[in-house]
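From the pipeline queue, job 12 of 40. The input is one protein chain; the requested action is below.

Action: predict structure.
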Amino acid sequence: MFDKVNPDDFKTLEKSEKLAILGTLGADGDPHLSLITTLMAKDENTMVAGQFSQGLSKVNMVERHKSGFAILTLDMSLWTGFCDWYDTKTEGDEYVRYNNMQMWRFNTYFGIGKVHYAHLKGITEKQKLKLAGVGVNAVRVLMLKGFMKNKNGKNVFSPFVKKLFNGLGNPKFVGFVNDEGYPAVVPAVQTQAVGRDRVVFTASPYKTLFDGLKKGARVAVMAISMEMESALVKGTFSGFKNGIGYVDVDRVYNSMPPISGYSYPKEDYKEVVKF
């Protein structure tokens, strides 16, 4: 892992047409994953993210600064890394730059309202997503997941969530807190939902990125469709046995408009007293 972004990667990381998954830390200590397509490099040592909506990840960024990320572009180039958020601005060069980008400049409904700044802790070199390894491990999960069903599981998954996780072409990412206290984000396209409350994935083809993931750890797993629909589940990790493990899910989070929040267990709506 390098302590600087390669300047040759700036233009690629700047593009809005990418999957940028940000890992943050919740107040309860659980890792949290969000799709933040505005995440990019300001310079070799600084990451920035433009905010156009409010959600749990933005609260986490401000209150608990440690973050991890995984960025996947349309040509299947991949970076993972870690950063520390240190400032938020509502003006300045990056604010103007974001709002002049085509995606935001001509958006009828919203633009970038805030820009968050982070010190880069480390980033991997550009690499291609290991499609062959993903394919092999996806087949392995499909063959074994029937034996890994939780017979006493609760009815946690909605049909929508289960469909997202079982879409073979849908990108998925696993988040966990590493030994340094940072939320690591690992691509895990091979992940599948099993039964009513469990997701299964293999360590391969990114075994080294899963270093620090231990039995009993709290884990977040995100699935995204090509239509940019998403679902986030959280639960307790079983540990890897013969390179395969599962998460018993006890929370489901919806980050999509119009209302973000936990759909399982259901939260009571709170009265709005400040505008």
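Job complete. The first strand starts at residue 18 and ends at 25.
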